[in-house]
Fold this protein.
Amino acid sequence: MELSEVQEFLVLAFGTLCNSSFLFVPLPPNLVGSENQTNRPDFQRMLRDVQEGKIRAIVCYKLDRVGRKTTDLLRLMDFLEKYNVDLLICSNGINTASDFSKIFIQIFAVIAEFERDTLTERITDNMMELAKDGRWLGGNTPMGFTAQRVTTGSGKGKSAYSYLVSIPEEKKMVQRLYILFRTNHSIQTTAKQMNLEEYRTPSGAEFNASTTRLVLRNPIYCTADRRSYDYFIDHEGNVFGDLLDFDGQHGLSAYNKTDQEKFEDSDSTFISPKFVQTVESKPISEWIIAVGKHEGFISSEHWIEIQELLDAIAEKYNRPHRKTNALLAGLIHCPCCGKRLNVISESDRWTNGKPRFKYVCPGYRKKTCNFKAVDGVLLDEFIVQQLSDMSDEDSERFKEILEIKIEEVMEQSSTTK
């Protein structure tokens, strides 16, 4: 966000007033913003200049232009204090050279974060309300569609919304993918066959298991009719609209399908922050389902049939992403409800040089079980260590097991006689 001429003048004037012996140099407009530090290269460059002693003071117009999170701001203050650099906030008249100002920064930071969280919550609630009307709320358009924006009314009554429009060539591709999977019942085989038939994703990439599964799982292709209505009602989905709206012509719109969390990586530093994001599918009971304004590609009968096939495959072959190498995948069950634990990979996160993952109870998301997750790497290493200790001929545990086995053999022998 670029500063106006008045704001820039106030910043320079305030900085000069607080530190008249310093030369203040305007920094690039993309230095500040609401994004995390990894997407602010000029911010990182400024921090490196601080380390090298090139900067004596940093002046900004408002506190929230430096950082929107209290934790980030406090880390920045500690960092600047380490290198004897002052932080001057023009709009609040704050100068960290004064200990009194540091207290105000912490108070203002908490208030700013609260306002940001409140605004985010309001936006999310508003988006969910719009979703109930079947509108397209933005993001990456699914395969087979493009987004078009429509404006209605004029003046103060002017409004606009987006909806999906089918692309004939991609529509045929999606329908072909569904046909192949219904025939061979294999995600990998379907992806290979799509590539052999020279189909490519909208980005030009070949089909793989992940892409194929996403298309097969997406309810946006399913026709909205009585059958699909009953399916989501039976699965406790949040279905909006009357049954009469499910006319068998339009497709479904589903929102709130995934839960995304961002973590700071273990080797992240303040100068070079690294974050990883995990995406976990939510149960249908948390989805918002409505009739969309777009065309349905796949009949509800076939779409539901494929969901049942995918569920059966997931239950039978509950294996992790191949890079996790989870030792207990498909073998370990929840200690609370007894369900088989799923393996959830944490992309680009590592523990002791091994890809990080969790064993997660599927009942936790459905709120039918309180057991959330266990660290997969630590549990696997514990199991391996226990097996190793048991196999050690010099270990006490091995001797105990051996003595028990000898007693059992002796008892069996005496009983036979």
Observations:
- The chain is about 40% helix and 20% strand.
- The chain has a mean pLDDT of 76.
